[in-house]
Amino acid sequence: MSERNARESAERNDTRLPAWGLVPRAGAARRHHDPLRRRFVAAALLLVFGVILASRGSEGARAEPIEDTAAQQAPTWRIGALFWHDSPNDELALEGFRAGLERHAHRYEIDVHNVHSDENEARRLLASWETSNVDLVLSLGTRATQLAKESLESTPIVYTAVTNPVLTGIADNWESSGPRIAGNSNWIPAETLLRAFSRAVPDLHDLGVLAGVDNPVSTAEIAEVEAAIAANPDLDIRLHKRRVHEVDELDDATRELVGRVDALWIPIDFLVYENLHLVRKSTDPAHLPLLSSSHRGAEAGAVVALVVDYKNLGRNAAAIAVRILEDGRDPASIPVGRLSGYRTIVNLAQSRAIGYRLPLDVLCTADRVLR
Question: How far apart are CA 161 and CA 32, in angstroms?
Fold first, then answer.
Protein backbone atom coordinates (compact mmCIF):
# COMPACT_ATOMS: atom_id res chain seq x y z
CA MET A 1 0.00 0.00 0.00
CA SER A 2 1.27 3.44 -0.90
CA GLU A 3 1.92 6.03 1.73
CA ARG A 4 -1.03 8.12 0.48
CA ASN A 5 -3.51 5.21 0.63
CA ALA A 6 -2.38 4.32 4.11
CA ARG A 7 -2.91 7.84 5.34
CA GLU A 8 -6.48 8.01 3.88
CA SER A 9 -7.34 4.64 5.46
CA ALA A 10 -6.10 5.81 8.83
CA GLU A 11 -8.17 9.02 8.58
CA ARG A 12 -11.33 7.05 7.79
CA ASN A 13 -10.86 4.85 10.89
CA ASP A 14 -9.89 7.67 13.23
CA THR A 15 -12.78 8.53 15.65
CA ARG A 16 -10.86 10.72 18.03
CA LEU A 17 -12.11 14.25 18.77
CA PRO A 18 -10.25 17.09 17.12
CA ALA A 19 -7.60 18.79 19.10
CA TRP A 20 -9.90 21.71 20.02
CA GLY A 21 -12.46 19.22 21.44
CA LEU A 22 -15.73 20.58 19.97
CA VAL A 23 -17.37 18.06 17.61
CA PRO A 24 -16.42 14.73 16.04
CA ARG A 25 -15.97 14.40 12.34
CA ALA A 26 -19.09 14.06 10.20
CA GLY A 27 -18.57 10.40 9.43
CA ALA A 28 -18.24 9.54 13.11
CA ALA A 29 -21.37 11.52 14.00
CA ARG A 30 -23.44 9.63 11.49
CA ARG A 31 -22.14 6.27 12.66
CA HIS A 32 -22.52 6.83 16.41
CA HIS A 33 -25.36 9.39 16.86
CA ASP A 34 -27.94 8.96 14.07
CA PRO A 35 -30.00 6.22 15.83
CA LEU A 36 -30.25 8.20 19.05
CA ARG A 37 -31.19 11.35 17.18
CA ARG A 38 -33.90 9.53 15.27
CA ARG A 39 -35.42 8.20 18.48
CA PHE A 40 -35.31 11.68 20.07
CA VAL A 41 -36.95 13.38 17.07
CA ALA A 42 -39.68 10.74 16.90
CA ALA A 43 -40.49 11.15 20.57
CA ALA A 44 -40.57 14.95 20.25
CA LEU A 45 -42.92 14.79 17.26
CA LEU A 46 -45.26 12.45 19.13
CA LEU A 47 -45.29 14.84 22.07
CA VAL A 48 -46.05 17.89 19.85
CA PHE A 49 -48.85 16.10 18.03
CA GLY A 50 -50.32 14.98 21.33
CA VAL A 51 -50.37 18.55 22.66
CA ILE A 52 -52.02 19.82 19.46
CA LEU A 53 -54.73 17.15 19.56
CA ALA A 54 -55.41 17.79 23.24
CA SER A 55 -55.64 21.53 22.59
CA ARG A 56 -58.10 21.03 19.75
CA GLY A 57 -60.15 18.71 21.86
CA SER A 58 -60.39 21.22 24.71
CA GLU A 59 -61.30 24.02 22.28
CA GLY A 60 -64.09 21.88 20.89
CA ALA A 61 -65.37 21.28 24.39
CA ARG A 62 -65.49 25.02 25.05
CA ALA A 63 -67.23 25.79 21.76
CA GLU A 64 -69.95 23.23 22.32
CA PRO A 65 -71.93 24.02 25.49
CA ILE A 66 -73.01 21.09 27.57
CA GLU A 67 -76.71 20.64 27.10
CA ASP A 68 -78.91 20.84 30.14
CA THR A 69 -80.76 17.57 29.85
CA ALA A 70 -83.07 18.46 32.74
CA ALA A 71 -84.14 21.66 30.94
CA GLN A 72 -84.66 19.70 27.70
CA GLN A 73 -86.85 17.13 29.38
CA ALA A 74 -88.96 19.75 31.23
CA PRO A 75 -92.20 20.84 29.52
CA THR A 76 -92.20 24.09 27.53
CA TRP A 77 -93.72 27.03 29.40
CA ARG A 78 -96.58 28.62 27.44
CA ILE A 79 -96.94 32.31 28.28
CA GLY A 80 -99.41 34.90 27.00
CA ALA A 81 -98.16 38.52 26.98
CA LEU A 82 -100.73 41.34 26.91
CA PHE A 83 -100.07 44.94 25.81
CA TRP A 84 -102.91 47.43 26.36
CA HIS A 85 -101.44 49.90 23.84
CA ASP A 86 -98.19 50.91 22.16
CA SER A 87 -95.68 51.77 24.86
CA PRO A 88 -91.88 51.99 24.61
CA ASN A 89 -91.70 51.36 28.37
CA ASP A 90 -93.64 48.11 28.07
CA GLU A 91 -91.65 47.00 25.02
CA LEU A 92 -88.40 47.41 26.95
CA ALA A 93 -89.91 45.45 29.85
CA LEU A 94 -90.87 42.57 27.53
CA GLU A 95 -87.35 42.56 26.11
CA GLY A 96 -85.97 42.26 29.63
CA PHE A 97 -88.49 39.50 30.46
CA ARG A 98 -87.31 37.43 27.51
CA ALA A 99 -83.69 37.97 28.52
CA GLY A 100 -84.48 36.82 32.04
CA LEU A 101 -86.07 33.59 30.81
CA GLU A 102 -83.15 32.97 28.44
CA ARG A 103 -80.76 33.26 31.35
CA HIS A 104 -82.78 30.65 33.23
CA ALA A 105 -82.37 28.26 30.24
CA HIS A 106 -85.92 26.85 30.41
CA ARG A 107 -87.80 26.31 27.17
CA TYR A 108 -90.69 28.72 26.67
CA GLU A 109 -93.10 30.15 24.11
CA ILE A 110 -94.59 33.66 24.37
CA ASP A 111 -97.77 34.63 22.54
CA VAL A 112 -97.61 38.45 22.37
CA HIS A 113 -100.71 40.55 21.65
CA ASN A 114 -101.37 44.30 21.60
CA VAL A 115 -105.11 45.02 21.87
CA HIS A 116 -104.68 48.75 21.05
CA SER A 117 -106.91 49.91 23.92
CA ASP A 118 -109.78 47.60 22.91
CA GLU A 119 -111.25 46.25 26.15
CA ASN A 120 -113.51 43.69 24.44
CA GLU A 121 -110.57 42.30 22.48
CA ALA A 122 -108.50 42.09 25.66
CA ARG A 123 -111.19 40.13 27.50
CA ARG A 124 -111.69 37.78 24.53
CA LEU A 125 -107.95 37.14 24.33
CA LEU A 126 -107.60 36.51 28.06
CA ALA A 127 -110.52 34.05 27.96
CA SER A 128 -108.92 32.16 25.08
CA TRP A 129 -105.63 31.92 26.98
CA GLU A 130 -107.38 30.50 30.02
CA THR A 131 -109.31 28.00 27.89
CA SER A 132 -106.12 26.84 26.17
CA ASN A 133 -104.41 26.43 29.57
CA VAL A 134 -101.44 28.72 29.15
CA ASP A 135 -99.09 28.38 32.11
CA LEU A 136 -98.93 32.09 32.89
CA VAL A 137 -100.08 35.50 31.64
CA LEU A 138 -97.62 38.40 31.55
CA SER A 139 -99.48 41.72 31.70
CA LEU A 140 -97.56 44.83 30.71
CA GLY A 141 -98.78 48.10 32.17
CA THR A 142 -101.60 49.09 34.49
CA ARG A 143 -104.71 48.67 32.34
CA ALA A 144 -103.60 45.31 30.91
CA THR A 145 -103.04 44.07 34.48
CA GLN A 146 -106.39 45.34 35.73
CA LEU A 147 -108.18 43.46 32.94
CA ALA A 148 -106.12 40.30 33.49
CA LYS A 149 -106.97 40.29 37.18
CA GLU A 150 -110.67 40.80 36.45
CA SER A 151 -110.88 38.20 33.66
CA LEU A 152 -108.71 35.26 34.74
CA GLU A 153 -109.93 32.78 37.33
CA SER A 154 -107.21 30.14 37.52
CA THR A 155 -104.23 31.24 35.39
CA PRO A 156 -101.41 32.89 37.36
CA ILE A 157 -100.51 36.47 36.41
CA VAL A 158 -97.14 38.21 36.51
CA TYR A 159 -97.31 41.94 35.87
CA THR A 160 -94.61 44.50 35.16
CA ALA A 161 -94.36 48.24 34.37
CA VAL A 162 -97.32 49.03 36.63
CA THR A 163 -96.82 52.48 38.13
CA ASN A 164 -98.72 52.10 41.40
CA PRO A 165 -100.43 48.71 41.81
CA VAL A 166 -101.89 49.63 45.20
CA LEU A 167 -103.62 52.89 44.24
CA THR A 168 -104.93 51.32 41.01
CA GLY A 169 -106.50 48.34 42.81
CA ILE A 170 -104.19 45.67 41.42
CA ALA A 171 -102.41 44.83 44.67
CA ASP A 172 -103.89 44.57 48.15
CA ASN A 173 -100.73 46.22 49.50
CA TRP A 174 -97.01 46.42 48.73
CA GLU A 175 -96.44 43.11 50.56
CA SER A 176 -98.86 41.07 48.46
CA SER A 177 -100.80 41.48 45.23
CA GLY A 178 -103.34 38.86 46.28
CA PRO A 179 -104.24 35.36 45.03
CA ARG A 180 -102.74 34.19 41.70
CA ILE A 181 -101.01 37.49 40.94
CA ALA A 182 -97.54 38.94 41.56
CA GLY A 183 -95.30 41.45 39.84
CA ASN A 184 -93.29 44.62 40.02
CA SER A 185 -93.71 48.37 39.73
CA ASN A 186 -91.95 51.22 37.95
CA TRP A 187 -92.90 53.53 40.81
CA ILE A 188 -90.59 56.44 41.60
CA PRO A 189 -91.40 58.08 44.95
CA ALA A 190 -93.14 61.41 44.40
CA GLU A 191 -90.72 63.31 46.64
CA THR A 192 -87.78 61.96 44.59
CA LEU A 193 -89.51 63.11 41.41
CA LEU A 194 -90.20 66.61 42.74
CA ARG A 195 -86.69 67.15 44.05
CA ALA A 196 -85.23 66.07 40.71
CA PHE A 197 -87.57 68.50 38.93
CA SER A 198 -86.45 71.26 41.31
CA ARG A 199 -82.81 70.60 40.37
CA ALA A 200 -83.69 70.85 36.68
CA VAL A 201 -85.69 74.07 37.23
CA PRO A 202 -84.09 75.79 40.24
CA ASP A 203 -86.83 78.45 40.54
CA LEU A 204 -89.65 75.93 40.40
CA HIS A 205 -92.58 76.99 42.59
CA ASP A 206 -95.59 76.58 40.31
CA LEU A 207 -95.76 73.24 38.53
CA GLY A 208 -98.44 72.56 35.93
CA VAL A 209 -99.63 69.10 34.96
CA LEU A 210 -101.69 67.81 32.03
CA ALA A 211 -103.49 64.46 32.27
CA GLY A 212 -106.40 62.51 30.87
CA VAL A 213 -109.53 62.33 32.99
CA ASP A 214 -109.85 58.54 32.92
CA ASN A 215 -106.19 57.50 33.08
CA PRO A 216 -105.56 55.47 36.27
CA VAL A 217 -101.77 55.80 36.01
CA SER A 218 -101.55 59.59 35.86
CA THR A 219 -104.33 59.81 38.47
CA ALA A 220 -102.20 57.78 40.88
CA GLU A 221 -99.09 59.82 40.06
CA ILE A 222 -100.85 63.13 40.69
CA ALA A 223 -102.34 61.92 43.98
CA GLU A 224 -98.90 60.90 45.23
CA VAL A 225 -97.32 64.19 44.14
CA GLU A 226 -100.01 66.16 45.96
CA ALA A 227 -99.37 64.10 49.10
CA ALA A 228 -95.60 64.68 48.81
CA ILE A 229 -96.07 68.45 48.44
CA ALA A 230 -98.24 68.50 51.56
CA ALA A 231 -95.73 66.41 53.53
CA ASN A 232 -92.67 68.44 52.43
CA PRO A 233 -93.38 72.18 52.78
CA ASP A 234 -89.69 72.92 52.13
CA LEU A 235 -90.29 72.01 48.48
CA ASP A 236 -92.40 75.19 48.17
CA ILE A 237 -94.24 73.86 45.11
CA ARG A 238 -97.86 74.46 44.10
CA LEU A 239 -99.51 72.06 41.64
CA HIS A 240 -101.80 73.37 38.88
CA LYS A 241 -103.86 70.58 37.27
CA ARG A 242 -105.65 70.47 33.97
CA ARG A 243 -107.46 67.30 32.92
CA VAL A 244 -108.77 66.59 29.44
CA HIS A 245 -111.26 64.13 28.02
CA GLU A 246 -109.89 64.06 24.48
CA VAL A 247 -107.05 65.27 22.30
CA ASP A 248 -108.93 68.36 21.05
CA GLU A 249 -108.89 69.82 24.56
CA LEU A 250 -105.10 69.75 24.95
CA ASP A 251 -104.43 73.07 23.21
CA ASP A 252 -106.82 75.08 25.38
CA ALA A 253 -105.70 73.34 28.58
CA THR A 254 -102.05 74.10 27.81
CA ARG A 255 -102.71 77.79 27.05
CA GLU A 256 -104.47 78.12 30.40
CA LEU A 257 -101.29 77.02 32.16
CA VAL A 258 -98.72 78.96 30.14
CA GLY A 259 -97.83 82.15 31.97
CA ARG A 260 -98.98 80.75 35.31
CA VAL A 261 -96.42 77.99 35.86
CA ASP A 262 -92.61 77.68 35.89
CA ALA A 263 -92.62 74.24 34.24
CA LEU A 264 -95.15 71.73 32.89
CA TRP A 265 -95.10 68.09 34.03
CA ILE A 266 -96.09 65.34 31.59
CA PRO A 267 -96.93 62.22 33.64
CA ILE A 268 -97.30 58.65 32.35
CA ASP A 269 -100.40 59.44 30.33
CA PHE A 270 -100.80 58.03 26.83
CA LEU A 271 -103.27 60.70 25.68
CA VAL A 272 -100.86 63.50 26.58
CA TYR A 273 -97.42 62.21 25.67
CA GLU A 274 -98.60 60.79 22.33
CA ASN A 275 -99.83 64.29 21.39
CA LEU A 276 -97.09 66.38 22.90
CA HIS A 277 -96.65 68.30 19.64
CA LEU A 278 -100.00 69.97 20.38
CA VAL A 279 -98.80 70.97 23.85
CA ARG A 280 -95.54 72.36 22.47
CA LYS A 281 -97.41 74.68 20.13
CA SER A 282 -97.95 76.86 23.20
CA THR A 283 -95.03 75.94 25.48
CA ASP A 284 -92.14 76.26 22.99
CA PRO A 285 -92.79 79.92 22.05
CA ALA A 286 -93.13 80.70 25.76
CA HIS A 287 -89.75 79.01 26.50
CA LEU A 288 -91.54 76.87 29.09
CA PRO A 289 -89.63 73.68 30.03
CA LEU A 290 -91.50 70.39 30.00
CA LEU A 291 -90.68 67.74 32.61
CA SER A 292 -91.77 64.11 32.44
CA SER A 293 -91.86 60.73 34.17
CA SER A 294 -91.93 58.71 30.93
CA HIS A 295 -89.48 57.75 28.16
CA ARG A 296 -91.89 58.93 25.48
CA GLY A 297 -92.22 62.30 27.20
CA ALA A 298 -88.47 62.91 26.99
CA GLU A 299 -88.26 61.78 23.37
CA ALA A 300 -91.23 63.98 22.40
CA GLY A 301 -89.93 67.22 23.93
CA ALA A 302 -89.51 67.21 27.72
CA VAL A 303 -86.13 68.69 28.69
CA VAL A 304 -85.76 66.28 31.64
CA ALA A 305 -87.41 62.96 32.46
CA LEU A 306 -87.06 60.59 35.39
CA VAL A 307 -87.63 56.93 34.54
CA VAL A 308 -86.70 53.45 35.76
CA ASP A 309 -84.65 50.85 33.87
CA TYR A 310 -87.52 48.99 32.19
CA LYS A 311 -85.32 46.18 30.85
CA ASN A 312 -84.15 45.46 34.37
CA LEU A 313 -87.76 45.60 35.53
CA GLY A 314 -88.64 42.96 32.93
CA ARG A 315 -85.73 40.73 33.98
CA ASN A 316 -86.98 40.89 37.57
CA ALA A 317 -90.48 39.96 36.39
CA ALA A 318 -88.99 36.88 34.70
CA ALA A 319 -87.45 35.87 38.03
CA ILE A 320 -90.92 36.11 39.61
CA ALA A 321 -92.34 33.90 36.84
CA VAL A 322 -89.64 31.28 37.49
CA ARG A 323 -90.43 31.25 41.20
CA ILE A 324 -94.08 30.55 40.38
CA LEU A 325 -93.71 28.07 37.50
CA GLU A 326 -90.64 26.13 38.59
CA ASP A 327 -90.43 26.54 42.35
CA GLY A 328 -94.18 26.34 42.92
CA ARG A 329 -94.22 29.58 44.91
CA ASP A 330 -97.65 31.00 45.81
CA PRO A 331 -97.94 34.36 43.98
CA ALA A 332 -99.69 35.89 46.99
CA SER A 333 -96.53 35.35 49.06
CA ILE A 334 -94.38 37.47 46.72
CA PRO A 335 -94.10 41.20 47.58
CA VAL A 336 -94.47 43.83 44.87
CA GLY A 337 -91.03 44.39 43.38
CA ARG A 338 -89.54 47.86 43.02
CA LEU A 339 -86.22 49.10 41.67
CA SER A 340 -84.02 51.07 44.04
CA GLY A 341 -82.81 53.67 41.53
CA TYR A 342 -83.93 55.68 38.54
CA ARG A 343 -82.48 57.08 35.32
CA THR A 344 -82.33 60.71 34.25
CA ILE A 345 -82.87 61.51 30.57
CA VAL A 346 -81.94 64.98 29.33
CA ASN A 347 -83.18 66.29 25.98
CA LEU A 348 -80.42 68.76 25.23
CA ALA A 349 -81.72 69.46 21.72
CA GLN A 350 -85.10 70.58 23.07
CA SER A 351 -83.46 72.63 25.81
CA ARG A 352 -81.46 74.54 23.22
CA ALA A 353 -84.47 74.90 20.91
CA ILE A 354 -86.52 76.76 23.53
CA GLY A 355 -83.54 78.66 24.92
CA TYR A 356 -83.64 76.99 28.33
CA ARG A 357 -80.28 76.52 30.02
CA LEU A 358 -80.15 73.35 32.08
CA PRO A 359 -78.04 73.40 35.27
CA LEU A 360 -74.59 71.90 34.77
CA ASP A 361 -75.01 69.30 37.54
CA VAL A 362 -78.13 67.95 35.81
CA LEU A 363 -76.25 67.56 32.54
CA CYS A 364 -73.23 65.96 34.20
CA THR A 365 -75.26 63.37 36.10
CA ALA A 366 -77.67 62.45 33.27
CA ASP A 367 -77.81 58.77 32.34
CA ARG A 368 -78.80 59.61 28.78
CA VAL A 369 -78.53 62.81 26.76
CA LEU A 370 -80.63 63.34 23.62
CA ARG A 371 -78.81 65.72 21.29
Answer: 85
Is 74-187+310-338's fold the same as 190-307+342-370's? yes
Looking at residues 141-163, what average pLDDT do you find? 97
Task: Please name which of 91, 84, 146 lies closest in space to residue 314, comparing C-alpha atoms.
Answer: 91
- Over residues 92-148, the pLDDT tens digits come to 999 999 999 999 888 999 999 999 999 999 999 999 999 999 999 999 999 999 999
pTM of the model: 0.77
CATH architecture type of domain 74-187+310-338? 3-Layer(aba) Sandwich (3.40)
Taking the C-alpha atoms of residue 8 and residue 31, their distance in angstroms, rounded to an integer, is 18
Q: Which CATH class is domain 190-307+342-370?
A: alpha beta
